[in-house]
Amino acid sequence: MKPVRSLSLPLSACDRVELSAGEQILLSGPCFTVRDASLNRLADAYANIAQEASMQAPEEVANIMDMLKDQLIFFAGPTPPHPGVSELPFGSIGPTTASRMDVSQIKLMPYGLTLSMGKGRRSDAYKQAARKHAAVYFAAVGGAAAVLAQHVITSEVVAWPELGTEAVMKLALDKFPAFVATDSAGADIYERRLMKEKSNGR
Questions:
Q1: How is the chain split into domains, by residue range?
Q2: Pairing assessment for the beta strands 24-33 and 168-182 based on DSSP bridges
């Protein structure tokens, strides 16, 4: 097993290509929380642009996409405020199921949303798009939400505050533990595990 690798965000295209499915990593640097409502809002806007070549994204949406381009997009679950017993920005922050983001993220990959983090498997369509756009998907352990919060050192709402817990937030991570679930070649750690279990007769 490879040693745990420390990575500084944001990652370049070269950094992404060098990652392999199954690697354990510690992430430090900026990332952005994006969930269903905000991701779908972005995807819908850019889907309209793709259909009408003469269209441009609304200025607000274009500015948000510029901010998110090439950044780590964290599909975070609800992020309640910390009860005040420490300086942590959250009481807990865990990953939400990433597969339900597949359709919207695939639409946005050509515009730079190629690095994401959540939990669980991604679809075959996502993996095909990942190979095309050198996208990488990190997974974190969902049951460790309270522990994960200790690795978030700052947070602020940067877009669409009216969406509440689904607003776009900017976080600063410090040694946030995760693993490479799908690499830029489309290799998938969950798929490998299933194949191994089948070969062992489970």
A1: 5-199
A2: antiparallel
**Secondary structure of residue 86 in the 3-state scheme:** coil
CB 13 within 8 A of CB 134: yes
Cβ-based neighbours of 53, under 8 Å, separated by 6 or more:
none
Give pLDDT < 70 ranges for the chain. Answer: 1-2, 50-56, 79-88, 192-202
Q: Evaluate whether 155 touches 87 at the Cβ level (below 8 Å).
A: no
DSSP bridge pairs for 157: 169
- Architecture (CATH level 2) of domain 5-199: Alpha-Beta Barrel (3.20)
Q: Report how far residue 138's alpha carbon sits from residue 119's, in angstroms, rounded to the nearest whole number.
A: 8
Distance CA 113, CA 168 (A): 14
How do residues 104-151 score in pLDDT, each as one tens digit? Answer: 999 999 999 999 999 999 999 999 999 999 999 999 987 778 888 889
Largest CA distance in the chain: 55
- Closest by Cα among 133, 128, 125 to 108: 133
Q: What is the H or E stretch that residue 189 is in?
A: helix 189-199
Query: Count of CB atoms within 10 A of residue 3's CB?
Result: 7
Which amino acid makes up residue 197? E
